[in-house]
Automatic annotation (TrEMBL), chain A:
Domain of life: Bacteria
Compartment(s): Cell membrane
Protein name per the record: Sugar ABC transporter ATP-binding protein
Membrane-crossing segments per the record: none
A GO MF label: ATP binding
Positions of the ABC transporter domain: 3-238, 254-496
Keyword ATP-binding: yes
Organism: Pseudooceanicola nanhaiensis
Organism taxonomic ancestry: Bacteria, Pseudomonadati, Pseudomonadota, Alphaproteobacteria, Rhodobacterales
UniProtKB/TrEMBL annotation, chain B:
PROSITE patterns found in the cross-reference section: PROKAR_LIPOPROTEIN
Protein name: ABC transporter permease
Annotated keywords: Cell membrane, Membrane, Transmembrane, Transmembrane helix
Species of the source: Pseudooceanicola nanhaiensis
MF terms (GO), sorted A to Z: transmembrane transporter activity
Amino acid sequence: MLLTIRSLTKTFPGTLALDDVRFDLAAGEVHALLGENGAGKSTLIKCLTGAYRPDAGEITLDGAVVAPRSTGEAQELGIGTVYQEVNLLPNLTVAQNLCFGREPRRFGLVSSRGMKAMAEGMLDGYGLDIDVSRDLGTYSVAIQQIVAIARAVALSGKVLILDEPTASLDAREVEMLFDVVRGLRAQGLGIVFVSHFLDQVFDLSDRVTVLRNGRHIVTEDIAALDRVRLIEHMLGHALEDEVEARNAGHVEARRPPMLHFEGMARRGVIEGFDLEVGQGEVVGLAGLLGSGRTESAELLFGLRAATAGTARDQEGPLTLDSPRAAIRAGFGFAPEDRKTDGIVADLSVRENIALALQARRGWARPIPRAEQQRLAEMYIERLDIRTSDAEKAVGDLSGGNQQKVVLARWLAMNPRFLILDEPTRGIDVGAHAEILRLIHQLTDEGMSVLLISSELDELIAVSDRVIVVRDRRHVAELTGAGISTETIVHAIAQHARKDGEAA
Amino acid sequence: MNPRLLPLYATIAIFLVACVICYIQFPYMLSTRVLGNLLTDNAYLGIVAVGMTVVILSGGIDLSVGSVIAFSGVFIAVMLRDTGLPAPVVFVLLLIVTTAFGAAMGGLIHGLAMPPFIVTLAGMFLARGAAYMLTIDSVPIDDPFYEMLRKAYYLMPGKGRLTLIGMVMLLSFAVGMVIAHRTRFGASVYALGGGENTARLMGVQVGRTTVGIYAFSGFMAGLSGIVFSVYTGSGYPLATVGTELTAIAAVVIGGTLLTGGSGFVFGTFIGVMTMGLIQTYIVFDGTLSSWWTKIVIGGLLLLFIVLQKGLLRLTSARFSGGLA
C-alpha cells in the first residue's frame, strides 16, 4: 500500500468529525471517497494535507509514519491536492503559477525564458496546447484544473487528492480531465477522488470508500458494487426499531390541509412541483446533494423568486416573492449552514432569539428587555439549550445548542410552517435525538414542518410524507407504510441508473 | 492580447493624447527643458509612488508615506543643524529609521491580522507627530554638500537639465521594476494581491513578504524625503500633507488595480508623468486656477476606476465561458 490510514480520529467542539477511520490507497489506483455533506470527507482530506492535526490515529506513506503540519510539508512528503475552486492565482501567468517558488534564475533574477521552458516541460504529456505566458485567469476552469494537477504532481508526485474537481466542468471538460487522471494512474500515482457525481465515480474509480457521520462504512471494488447499494451506504441503513415503532404510530392520520403550492418552478433551478402541506404534518424532502432539495425550500421561502407557480392557504392566495413576505405569511426557514446564514455568533443567546421577532415588529417598536429576557429563558428551558446563561455569545455554544438557538429564534415568531434544512448537520448524537423529539413536539402543537435531510433514518423517523427529489425534479411521493429506506433509495437510484445509460 | 496589459496601454495612450494636446497649444512644451523640470518637480512623488505601487500590488495600502516624507525633511534639517554629522551619515540614519518604521507597520499588519488601512493611518499620525516633536518651524538646510546635490545635473541636448534628483527617481523606477517583475519577492507580492490564502497554499511566506513590502515602502518614503529636502532646501513638519493620496492616484492612473494583484511599476511612472504634465499645462496656460489640476486628476481617476471595472467584467466573462 502506498498510503494507509488507521484509526484516524478528529474532534471539534461538539462534534466527532472522524471516528476511528481507516483508508488504504495503492499506487496506480483511483480510490473514490464518498459521503454526504458532513460525512467527514473534507476532514479526512484536511488531515492528509496538514490543514488539521488528527487527535489520534496513524498515517503511513510508503511505509513511514507521517504527520504533515502544513500543506507545504504534505507536498514535500508527496501528497498533492487539487480543490474544487482552483487554488492557483488567476492574476499570474500559467508559467508563473507552475513554477511558483522554484523559478529558474539567472544572475539572481527570475529568467522568464527559463520559466517558460520549465512550465512547458511540466505541462508535457497533459495534452494541453496553451500559451504559458498568458494569465491563468484567461483560460477555462478545466484548463486551470489541469494546470493545478500538473503543479501538484510535479511538486509531490506520490499521492494526488482531487477534491470535487469536476463540480464546475461540463461533460466534455470532465472527459478531458479524466483522460489526464487515467494517464497519471498509469504512471503509478495513487489518486484519491472525491465527488458526489456517482456516474463519474463509476466511470473513473477502481475502489470506493464510503464515510458516513465520520465513520468508515465500507471499502469495496467498484465492480462489486451497484448504485443502489452504494446509495444505501451513503444515506444510511435500515432504521432502529424504536424509531420505526414511533413512526408507525402516526402513519395513518390524515391532516387537514393548510398550504397549497401549485406549479412552483424556477428555470434552471427546479422544475415545477406541487406541494400540499397539512396542519401538523411533517413533509420530508429526500435526495442526494445537489438534487434540488434546498432549492425547493428556498423557492417556498422566497429566497429565490419563483418564475411560475402559486401559493395559497385556506384564506386565499399568498405572495412569497421575498423572505420578508414569507415571514409575514407565517413561514420560517432554518438554513443548512447555520454558521453563515442562521445565527449571529457574536451576539448573545437572548439577542439572537429576539432578532427575527424584532425584525418583524420593525425597529420603531423595540422589544422591552424584560420581554426579551422572558422569551430567552422560556426557550432555553423548553428546548433545553445548554448555556450558562442567556447572555452567553452563541458562537461559544456547541453545534447542537447553536441549532437549538436557531430553532428558538423561529419559534419565537410562532410560525405555522417551518422549513428545516439539515437541522442535525454536524451535531452530536444526543442533540440529534433531541432535535427530532422537538420536531414531534412542535407538530403535535399544530405547526407544519418541511424537513430536508441527507439522513434517511431521520426522515423516516419523523416524516408523515417523504418527497423524493432528483435531477431538479420532484419525482416520487411516499406516504405511510411506503416510507422506508428501500423505497427512498430506489426512487433516488432510478435516476442514477437512467442517467448512466444516457451517458 | 493579454488583458492584463490593457490598463497599461490605456495609461500610455492617455499620456500620449495629453502630450499631443499640449504640443498643439504650446509647441514649446515638448522640449527637454520642460521634461527636465517635469522630472525634477515630481521626483519625490515618483519615488514614493514606486513604494506605493508595490504595496498596492500586494493588496495593501500605505497612508503613512506623506508624513514620513515630512518627518524625513525635519529629521535631516535638525540633525544637520544640531549634531554636525555629515549629510551622508544622516541620510543612512534616516533610511534605517524609515525602513524600520515600515517594517514595524508590516509586522503589525501581519501579526495582528489588522487591515493595512488602520495600521498605516496610525503610522501617518505617528510620523507627523514625530516631525512636530523635532520642530514646529520650517528649518532651512545650510550645508555645502546639499548645495552640491541641488546643483548637480546632466545637460541634455536642447539645454534641458536632468537634475540629480530626477535621476534618482528614474533609478528608483528601474529598481522597482526589477524587484516587482524579476524577483521571487515580486512574484510573492503579486501572489498576495491575488489572494492571501491561495498564496499561502502555494508556499508564499506571507509574514516575511508583508514585512518586506512595507519596509520597502518605508525606505522609498525616506528616500523621497531626502529628495524633497534637496528640492526645497528645508525641513518643515507641515510639508507634503496628502502626498500619500496623490501617490495612490498616480498608481491607479498608472493602471494598477486597487484591489491588488495586477499592474506595472512602469505604469506608475506614466501616471506620475501624466499628473505632472497636467500641472505644467496649467502653468503654461496661466489663466487657469491651479485647482484645475485636481479636477482633471479626479476625472482621470474616475475614468480609470470605470475602465478597471469594465476589464474585470470582461475577464470574468471569459473566465466563465468555455475553453479559451
